[in-house]
Every structure is written in C-alpha cells, then in structure tokens.
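FIELD: query
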Amino acid sequence: MSEPLVIIGNGMAAARLVDEIAKRALGRYAVAVIGEEPLLAYNRVLLSALLADEVAPTDVELKPARWWRDRGVTLRYGSRATSIDVAGRTIALANGERLAFSQAVFATGSRPIRLTTPGMELPGVMTFRDIYDVSAMRAQAAPGSSVVVIGGGLLGLEAAHGLVKAGACVTLVHLMDRLMERQLDAAAADMLRRAVEARGVKVLLESETARVIGSRRAEAIELKDGRILPADLVVVAVGVRPNATPAADAGIVVNRGIVVDDHLETSADGVFAIGECAEHRGICYGLVQPGYEQADVLARRLAGEQAHYPGSILATNLKVSGVDVFSAGDFLGSPGTESIVLHDPGLGVYRKLVIAQDRLVGAVLCGDNADATWYLDLIRSGRPIGALRDDLAFGRALADRAAA
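FIELD: result
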C-alpha cells in the first residue's frame, strides 16, 4: 500500500518535488497536494510578462491537469490547510476535510511585506505577488494612469516594466541608493537604472514614502522630503516574508522561516520544508533555484537514497525590464578577493568577476548573459581558473580556446 505523503503548498517548489518523486519513487507514495489558490501551480517568474501581455495565461501554468492525474496526485487546490496535527498525523482543511499523512512537506512559500505607512490600507494600494494581483493591476492601471511602484528590487522592477508596457505612467520609488542592491553592484545597478528609465519608468532613488494620500482611495503618495507624486494606483513591492505560520501553529520550530536541517527535515519527525518558507543554516533564500535544489534533494531522500542539502550558491539570471542581468556568489568582493572588470558603456555591457585563491567566487553581468551558466559552473565547481584568467572576462569561447 502506498504511503500517504501530503504537500502543503502548490507553488513552483511543490511542483518540482512531485515531478522528482514521480521519477524516483512512483507508486511508493500516495501524494496529495494542498493549494490555497484555486489554480494549478504556475510560474510566478512570468507574472510581469503576463502583466505586459508578453505571454498568455496558459503560458504561466507549470503542468496541465492531466500531468498531475497521470502521476496519481490528488489535488486539493483552492482549499487552505487550517491546522496540522503532528502527533495525530492529520491535516485539517478549510472545507472540513482531514487528510492523513505519514510524511508531510511544507512548501507554503512566502507572503508580500505590507508597509505600515499611513494610508496603506486605502483601496488602490496593492502588492504584487500572485496572478490575482496581475488582474487587479490591469483593471486599475488604465493607459495614461499614474502609478507609483514602491520598491526597486526584482518584484518592483517587474511590476514597473509590466505597467509601462500596459500604458501606465510609472514612477518607481526606492529607499536605497541603487536598484537591486542585493543582486547587483553599483556599476551594474546604474546601467540597469539607465535602461529602465529609457523604457519609460521614472526612477527615484534614496526616496522614502511618508504616507499615501487619499480620502476614499489612493490619490497620491508623499515622500519624506515633501514631494507629492500623483498615483491612481500604488504598488508595494518591498520584499517577502516566509509563510511559516502554519508550521509555527503546529508547534514546529520557526525562526524567520521553518527551520530545517541538511535533510530538509523540521523539528518534527517526518515533516519537511522546502522553498521560500524554509530556513536552512540561518538562510531563507527567497529564490526559485534554491527551492528546486531542495526539492531534488528531498525527493532523493524520500526515494530512499542518501542525499543532503549543503545550501545553495545564490544566483540571479534573468531579464529585468528587458535587460539581461546575472549575479552569483560573492559578487561584491570580500576582503582578500580581487576583481576583473569589463565595462563597455557603448555596447551596454558590464562584467565583473571576483577571484580568490585562483578560483572564481563571484560574478556580475549586465547587458549580456550569454556566459552566465558557464561562470556559475566555475563558481560552483571551484575549478582553478589560472589558465583561463587572461581571457576570462571575454567569455567561454575565447577563454577555453586560449587554455587549450
């Protein structure tokens, strides 16, 4: 008889886990997936493209309904898990149903951070996190309308890009001195800012929101320096927090996220956590790729293999507002490292490679990501780069030829 395995959460990490389990242990588990959203798992990375009408709604769906059926998965989407009884090995759903489990996995993702600034409760103020936010933004951001996006990280830039493509007049307000400060150094961030502005987004750096102005709905925001920005819509995209509340309510150890060990197991036997809700060695990654790596490791363990998760090397490789950006590892350069920099403003290309003890330990690319995967492989493998160093900044083709 198959062992009941319940996955709480129906996002990208959960879908990856089901896929890997089906490859490695098909028939060993009777898998049930609980999803709070009444939709099949979808690709959140494509939400800005969906907002900009660059992809169709069907393009964001990760797997069709038939895929789940063919793997014998029971889907309970549109049904929130209200409580988890670890001792009794049952999970209660909002519809009154209870699911028994032998093993359970939290893949509950994260929640958008909501600012406590005055006026944030007004209609016309929203976050950008799920597919319903896309629909709401489209409904409220008519062509020619004024939109203020608060937050110059990845989500804020994606929202701004999608809204400009939809015809809105967008101002992006960011507290820090550069865009995407967690992923880019100053030079790459400046290139990105120029590219974003060239696409129609007005960028205000080192600017803090004091309040949202409006009586019945948002009409403008006031900055701490007194400036007033008209706003028919305010989009708050200042980050996310791990959705660890369901685990905490079940008595499982939670810090910022659900604390897991190198086996992705929580403080409760047979209960695991992966993805944005998980905290491993004090780190909550908040990115897709670490969640996939965690899902792969956990699937191997559930299949009876020996596997452990040592942590992930943070890497960002994507197109932001139409601009290719990539960063990985120690891209700022810790003490004792040295950097090789290639900067061609005319071509819009920037590369910074950080080296320590004949190893590539970090990289930032902006404008040309063709060699991003190669640089990431060098960082992860720890391969000596002495023979490649003279041509390293010019990419794989030249460096490999020179080293041959």
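FIELD: remark
The longest helix spans residues 288-302.
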